[in-house]
């Protein structure tokens, strides 16, 4: 953040500069390490646009809960449509 309280993150620029972050090649090891189970309750701090949180949500299923939190409203605003439907997202 540049100016105190100003959200200077550009989600589209971030995704252009670091598309590998959300590739299956990079997210699969994270999800494997976390080993989410159906019914678990998970908080994803720094969820960004929700790609990893979406993978977690698929793993915990309808009986689990995933909450994504990010300090950037810009990142949450462009959250992928599938993530929007299955996650609770918050900023601040």
Task: Give an overview in words.
α3 (51-60) links the parallel β1 and β2 (65-70). The protein has helices at residues 11-17, 24-34, 51-60, 73-77, 81-86; strands at residues 41-45, 65-70, 88-91. The mean pLDDT is 80. It has one domain (11-91): Vaccinia Virus protein VP39 (Rossmann fold, 3-Layer(aba) Sandwich). It is α/β, with parallel strands linked by helices.
Short description:
The protein is α/β, with parallel strands linked by helices.
- Main beta sheet, described? 3 strands, parallel
Q: What is the subunit organization of this protein? A: single chain
Distance between the termini: 13 Å
Number of distinct beta strands: 3
Q: How would you classify the helix and strand content by structural class? A: alpha/beta
Please, how many helices? Answer: 5
Low-confidence stretches: none
Order of strands, widest sheet = 1-2-3
Q: What is the CATH topology classification name? A: Rossmann fold
Strand content: 15-25%
| CATH C-level category | Alpha Beta
Under CATH, the homologous superfamily reads Vaccinia Virus protein VP39
Total discrete domains? 1
Average per-residue pLDDT, rounded, comes to 80
* Spatial extent as radius of gyration: 13 Å
SSE order: HHEHEHHE
What's the overall geometry?
Answer: globular
Share of helical residues: 40-55%
């Amino acid at each position: 953040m540049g100016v105190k309280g100003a959200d200077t993150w550009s989600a589209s620029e971030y995704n252009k500069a670091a598309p590998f972050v959300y590739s299956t090649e990079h997210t699969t090891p994270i999800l494997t390490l976390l080993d989410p189970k159906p019914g678990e309750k998970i908080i994803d701090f720094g969820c960004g646009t929700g790609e990893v949180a979406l993978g977690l949500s698929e793993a915990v299923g309808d009986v689990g809960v995933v909450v994504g939190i990010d300090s950037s409203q810009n990142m949450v605003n462009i959250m992928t449509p599938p993530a929007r439907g299955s996650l609770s997202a918050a900023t601040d």
